[in-house]
Amino acid sequence: MIALSGVVRVPNENLTQAAEEADERASAKAGWKLLWSAIKEERRFIIYGQIVALGWSIGRVAIPLLVQQGIDRGIEKDGSLVVWTMLIVAAGVLSSVSLGLRRFVAFRNGRMIESRLRDRVFAHIQRLHFSFHDANATGDLMSRANTDLQNFQDVITMIPLTTGQFVLVAGAVIIMFLTQPVLALLALATLPLVNVLGRRFAQKLHPAIMGVQRESAQLATVVEETVAGVRVIKGFGAEGVRAKALRVEADDLRHESLTASLVRSRYLPAMEIAPNIGLIAVLAYGGHLVIEGDLTVGTLISFNIYVMLLIQPLRSMGMTVANAQRAAAAGVRISQLLAVEPRIVAPETPTSLPTTAPLGGVEFEHVDFAYPGHEGEPVLQDLTLSIQPGESVAFVGATGSGKTTLASLLPRFYDVDAGTVRLDGVDVRSLDPQALRRNVSIVFEDTFLFQASVFENIAFVDPAATEEQVRRAARLSGAEEFIDQLPNGYRTEVGERGLSLSGGQRQRLAIARSILADPRVLILDDATSAVDPTKEHEIRDALGEAMKSRTTIVIAHRPATIALADRVVLIDQGRVAAQGTHTELLASNDRYREVLAADVTDVTTADVGR
Fold this sequence. Notes:
Elements: H1 15-21, H2 24-41, H3 43-75, H4 81-127, H5 130-135, H6 138-145, H7 147-179, H8 181-188, H9 191-228, H10 230-235, H11 239-292, H12 297-338, E1 362-369, E2 380-387, E3 392-396, H13 403-409, E4 418-423, E5 426-427, H14 433-439, E6 440-443, H15 454-458, H16 467-476, H17 480-484, H18 503-517, E7 521-525, H19 533-547, E8 551-555, H20 559-562, E9 567-572, E10 575-580, H21 582-588, H22 590-607
Parallel strand pairs: 3-8, 3-9, 6-7, 7-8
Antiparallel strand pairs: 1-2, 1-4, 4-5, 9-10
């Protein structure tokens, strides 16, 4: 694992706002530290890359010297041209072999660090709590986990390349000064200018690169939302609205990209032309020295070769600086993500759930809760409720009354602000969240299926499940009949998000997935809302069978589904307003009748045209 050094804690969970609020210098420092920690993690192979880069540099620096000796001695003096030619060939072979090894090690290091950091980022995203995902766009997270990591990979790849070029420049400069100081001074007079331009280039480019990456993330969010919501867009004929939103983000990205390009266009030409001025000076002054007999032809030629060798490394300095700044900017964005502390964490010594029956008892004791960022708008207030093991309870209430919120506190998607939630007498905050969620399964109203087969979706929580177990879960959820009618049965691919199936079919598969998990508590969050009314009785019958062996919480609107529960709890304004059977509450509670009448109207309206 890559160490957490360099990660500056960001209090604001909204990463876009956090980026705006963060101190720029501290953020940049965090980006560089994260890059350095990634390099240290792969330091052994980084060293290997430096060694082969040194071999490449030695070969390249030696060739002009050997050419000089070949001309001055092999041609003009002792005729040992063959010897010098073979030495030049040997230096060329060393340079070529080292070049190949250097590129392999460079790309290997870049990909390894990118892979490790991607695994870490992906794992961290999965660990983060629901409120974090509520506040951040999917496209932004995708950009940080892909584009920003690619920028990291680019700069790691360049390390041995840059080292080799640095050694080449240093070796060439030393040899030139030892050979002919005045000529070397003329050839290298522009180096300080290149250095100054490089520093200013880096200072100007960093904010522009940050802007490009920020706008790229926002553009990715628009694209992701458009693709995911294409049915809604087409259903409302709103293609123009989304096209306009895309144009706005694309224009912003173009503006930031042009700003970065303008910075490059100002500095890179000057950084490129500066070394060529040295070449002109070498030809002018060096040619004069050769004519006067103060310099050999071989030395002049070697100086020309050295200057030519220096042009490419000096020219690439701009690219190196740009990539380093891009990686630092990416490091800032990645470190912002890694800086978010998961709110829902396992205690150091988790408590184990009891294993002796009866199991599945649930208690909400004086619970207060408000969503993060909305602390002044409590959803639940001093709510107390007990559910016995094996009991089925329906939560009923108006929209926004807190039904789904209350159910979400049991698997600890959120932590209560005050009070306690217990499962089988154990405070859920003292349990390992993964162990807790293996015992509390929830079927959401918004059903999500993975792009896999029907079998794999049902067996998602237990990939080792047998075919009999999967078929039993499908049978209990009422999904078996339509699955058998699919082209490939249980091996049929459901497509992205399961959208090749109807809403009712997706919900039945989601119910089967939860039944296979065999939880102590099964939560059905309006799980029959997308089911055709003509088929609803089939799922109700199947649910009735599945509910017999476990505690079940049903969040429902339809009276027939509510009637499945042993007890109905009316939740109003964040509190338990009434309890009893469906029949009892219908007869005795005006508010219950009002809520149910409104829900029946909504459901009936939604069912029209199905």
